[in-house]
Amino acid sequence: MSDDSIDSAALERGLILVQQGRFPEGKTYLLQAVAANPHDPQALALLATCQYHIDGEEADALATIEHALALAPLEPHYHALRACILVALRRPRPALESAAEALRLDPASTMALTAEAAAHLRLEDWPAAERAARRALEIDPDDAGAANLLAETLRIQGRLEETGAHIEARLARDPLDPFTHAAAGWAALQNGERRQAEEHFVEALRLDPQLESARSGLIETFKARSPLYRGYLRWTFATQRLSPGKRWLLILGLLFGARFLRVLLGGAGVIVLVLYLLFALWTYLASAIGSFLLLLDRRARLALNSAEKWEGLVVGLTLCGGLLLLVAGVVTRAPGLRALGLGSVGASIPFALTFTNDSKQGRLLFAAVAGVSLLAGVLTAAASYGRPLLPVELTGKIGSAAFVSVIASTWLANVRSLRQ
């Protein structure tokens, strides 16, 4: 059999498998097709499609589609696929550029419009994401990807009645779409309908056991059994609709407002400042503490992935253990116990920003801050018992650095490149 015959047969088989959504199998045949003809842009694009749909192979998909584009730079579908891959790689601005080029070549490309909507979602530009999704649906009302992105943008903007009507229409059109069930679950959760949300998430996972948005949504419904966590969710949903700039203004407003009230109220103002600090810590720790509580539930903990389990375990132990040490130190008037407690409680905050953080730089940074906090607690405790491990002056500097870095981590957590 000639190489051309092998190439043609592998390409045809790979195309069929891609159309069936069997991407790992399709990749095998398409690799054969590309090996037989490395300059076939269609084979490369189909291979990139398979890699794009396989977890962990998005970077390979980008390299493959760029090879295809080098061979066929005027093919709009390839630019649209590149935009989708870049969104998956959390590179929304280059994705918008690729989507724009695809639309220049083919203004009716719903794939490019859907990628544009997804990129705007990454950039938290909700109105732009809504416009792109609506344009895609005007061209193809059956485009499930655009429809689900539209549902997401409406929900984030707090337009829950529109979201509900849109999702109801989508479910009537296709009751077996797992993405629509996941969108319905998030809308119900934001509306406070936890039981309905759980039903939709469970149905989405039945239809697609690997659907991450449904799995994470189900975990949120489990955590929302706690009234305190429901308060955290309401705060999250309320601030989510704000642009990043407005969110920063809100944080600064709360901080300076608390400081102003402290000055205005004198001694009683300390209570206001303490309440603000507790509120700030609660917003950062609530999700991790929720995971810690789910670890205690024999059934609910099965929904957690390994990163969430580690986050819940480490944050739960450092926070609860630190609080116990603090109380013991106050009761027994033991400064060493208080130092260990403060170091442990301080470490719980950056630890809550570490394990489920998709930013490698962020994970390293926040883990380092947690380590400094724990180290400061140990060094200060040893010094308080007359057994300093380092010179007292250096121990004091490390303690100050730990305090400043823990506080700074709550601000750095709002930097997109450090927390994803």
Short description:
This protein is an all-alpha fold. It has helices at 3-19, 23-36, 41-52, 58-71, 76-88, 92-105, 110-122, 126-139, 144-156, 160-173, 178-190, 194-207, 212-223, 227-240, 244-265, 269-295, 306-332, 335-351, 360-384, 392-412.
Task: Describe this protein's structure.
With 420 residues, the chain is an all-alpha fold. Among the domains are: 141-226, Tetratricopeptide repeat domain (Serine Threonine Protein Phosphatase 5, Tetratricopeptide repeat, Alpha Horseshoe); 242-412, no CATH class. It has 20 helices and no strands. The radius of gyration is 26 Å and the shape is globular. 41% of the residues are buried.
Secondary structure: elements and pairs:
Elements: H1 3-19, H2 23-36, H3 41-52, H4 58-71, H5 76-88, H6 92-105, H7 110-122, H8 126-139, H9 144-156, H10 160-173, H11 178-190, H12 194-207, H13 212-223, H14 227-240, H15 244-265, H16 269-295, H17 306-332, H18 335-351, H19 360-384, H20 392-412
Q: What is the end-to-end distance?
A: 50 Å
What is the tally of helical segments? 20
Give the rounded overall mean pLDDT.
84
Largest sheet: none
Key words describing this protein structure:
mainly alpha, single chain, 420 residues
